[in-house]
Amino acid sequence: ARDGGATHARGSRAVSRTDAGHYVCRATNKHGSAVRSVVVTVEYEPSIGETGCPARRLWVEGTPAELACAASGNPPPHVACAKLGDGQDPPLVSPNVTRAHAGTYQCRATNTHGSALRNITVAVEYSPVAVSLRVLPSANVSRGASFSVECHAEGLPTPTYGWALPPANNLHFATDNRSVAIAGAAAANRGLYTCTATNRHGRRASSVMVRVDGEMGCIGKVGGNLSITATASPAPSHLVESRLVLVASLGSLGAVTAVGLAAAGGYYLKTTACKKGEYNVRDAEGSSEAACLHRQRHDRGEIYGIQLPQP
């Protein structure tokens, strides 16, 4: 009888794992009885289940990792795990888990009766890295043009994005906040654009400087009208006056009128210069009395001018 249970008849049958246990054998005749205890052990090949060996694991970069996998079997099986495609066993216990540990591993349980296999997928989470910013079409933007700043970062879980940038009313952020578009660039859009990528393991930021061309400049016609020009950094007064005299001499205005306009132009430039060294010609924009154009001179920087119609 097994563990004091019902008596089993003698004979043979197929053994199963449930046959293992403690048995009591009792022999009896008219003169008495004899008792003997027997422990029955059933050996069997290995098996690996989800409970002792989950098919998906999650590691965090920089933390210890151990790819343990429990298997059943008798005798107790030996379990070894290797990353598929590596050709060798990876370090399964490490103080510095890296993203290179991510992948599919195969665990094999073996004893004298056979073996069992189980695949395990390992994902490695990590804080955002490689944050990069890209300005399209360029970080040097012409006033009135449109541009966008895009942010990209690697990380698991997928990072979320935040921005620190010059405040303006012409900003449009993408749905996922990975980019910001600016239409009709103005001076308010100049400055440092910083993108911060964040997930539950940390954050990282990157910045880019965006430059927007200065005020709209004017290059007037030489002829019927007088063209007054000034560099982005104020030029010496004798250079300004020389240019005014030269341009005026090419016009159709009389000498007295040219001199008067030159003096008035010099007074305008001196009294409306910005503190940063740029001449303020915003007042001329959109005016019916002035027409503005802009050009770039490599030898003297940006050139601005105000075209004044002939009285």
List the helices and strands and how they pair.
Layout: E1 21-29, E2 32-40, E3 44-47, E4 56-60, E5 72-74, E6 78-83, E7 103-111, E8 114-136, E9 140-141, E10 147-156, E11 160-164, E12 171-173, E13 179-182, E14 191-199, E15 202-212, E16 226-231, H1 237-250, H2 255-271, E17 295-297, E18 301-308
Parallel strand pairs: 4-8, 9-15
Antiparallel strand pairs: 1-2, 3-5, 6-7, 7-8, 8-10, 10-13, 11-14, 12-13, 14-15, 16-18, 17-18
Structure description:
The chain is mainly beta and about 300 residues long. The chain folds into 3 domains: about 45-125, Sandwich (Immunoglobulin-like); about 125-215, Immunoglobulins (Immunoglobulin-like, Sandwich), CATH 2.60.40.10; about 225-235 and about 240-305, no CATH class. The protein is built from 2 helices and 18 strands. Strands 4, 6, 7, 8, 10, 12 and 13 form a 7-stranded mixed sheet that branches. A 4-stranded mixed sheet has the order 9-15-14-11, with no helix packed on it. It has a 3-stranded antiparallel sheet with strand order 16-18-17. The N and C termini lie far apart (about 130 Å). Residues about 215-260 and about 265-310 have low confidence and may be disordered.
